[in-house]
Amino acid sequence: MGSTDVNRRDLIKRAAAAGLIAAPALGALSACASGGGDNDSKVAKGEKTKDNPLGVNKDAELDFVIFDGGFGTQYGKDAAKIYEKNYGKVKLTATQKIRSLLQPRMVGGNPPDLVDNSGAEEMDAASLIDKGQLTELSPLLDAPSVDDPGTPVRDTLLPGTIEMGQYGDEKVWRLNYAYTVYGQWYSKKLLADNGWEYPRTWDEMLALCAKAKKKGIAGWTYAGQHPYYIPFTLYPFIGKIGGPEVIRSIDNLEPNAWKHDAVKSAFEAYHELAAKGYILKGTPGLDHIQSQTQWTKGKCLFIPNGSWVENEAADTTPADFDMAVGPVTGLDGSDKMPFGTLWAQAGEPFIVPAQAKNPAGAMEFLRIMLSKQSAQNFSRLVKSLSCVAGATDGMEMSPGLASANQALKDAGDNVLNPRIFDWYPTLHREQIGSVVAELMAGRMKPAEAMDKCQEYADKTAKDDSVKKYKHA
């Protein structure tokens, strides 16, 4: 998002209104771009050597567009300085309007070399791939890593990173750089000051919310204007209750996937938060920043979010807040997965357009970003994990980052990786998002919500214009 997507970044979209036009805008882009422009303007290839394994033209400029969101842009600027020591100048453009800025360039056959494809205006990667608009990244993954020439880049990445760049086959179309841990974010200090324990079961969650309510503290808040934040905890809650196969069935658009008992239990649990008045008043009208601010002010206990939140909410977070992420609270002892189960995955996708003039330079830039030096710098700057395994070892970490790192270690193999959010972004963001918004606001009963989610999923499954994907 995060993130994100969630995504973040990607996990992370910033405006529902912008999301509503994402699919048609991208469709028009892809239809035009697939036949526009040419490759005659590509720069000449450089000589491949031990120090230049991708054969970068050392005199060619690199055109890089970076998303200026929760992670900022400094980490990209720092990587650019390293790149420029051995290669050409980097033209770095920062924006929050990825699609608005790049659509004319993609249609005109003159895209940047490297794009941090994130934010509310993230381009639909599935559509770009389907229309042949992205460069496949195997040359980057097979290249020697910066830190150990005997180890290919692909072997330095955290589990799931490569899979997040795959869409139905073994080819890798994007590199998701941030490693986001999603969950119930909270203040350790707030719980400790009141002698409260982190809830492991839903009965414990309701009991804790009741205690907090007596002290004028709400149990939960969330980004009501962007309800696709709610699945940051809802999806892993469903998976914890019913097992990873339930998440896979939802991702695969299987008939009656949303009718599973695990979905029913999760929807009933979340509906109970609203029914008992445990959600911060006014939450449905809050955006992501406003909800985070209410949370950092101590107005509520929990917020569903990704690990980018520590950096994004830094301006309003008290010095002694002691921010932490907790794994999803389970239902009860019948859950199929243990306490500690997380949704964690690589986000913040970087892509190399197929018509980029300097694709080798773009992949070399990513190779530099995947060095431990750049990965540590990223984590230090933005308080988030990168996709580089072991990059934070021995590093002093902020509270939220340390918590995310520990939660990931504690989860072990119990890490869920939903794909509905990036395989079918319209379904996830606009349709499922609208349903859970109504559920959490107490305006829709669980049974109706299940029916509506299944109706939307079935429509997507039957829509021949939407490319379909399946878990292996």
TrEMBL record:
Protein's recorded name: N-acetylglucosamine/diacetylchitobiose ABC transporter substrate-binding protein
Residue stretches in coiled coil: none
Principal location class: other
Record keyword Lipid metabolism present: no
Signal peptide extent: 1-33
Gene: ngcE
UniProt similarity note: Belongs to the bacterial solute-binding protein 1 family.
Subcellular location(s) per record: Cell envelope
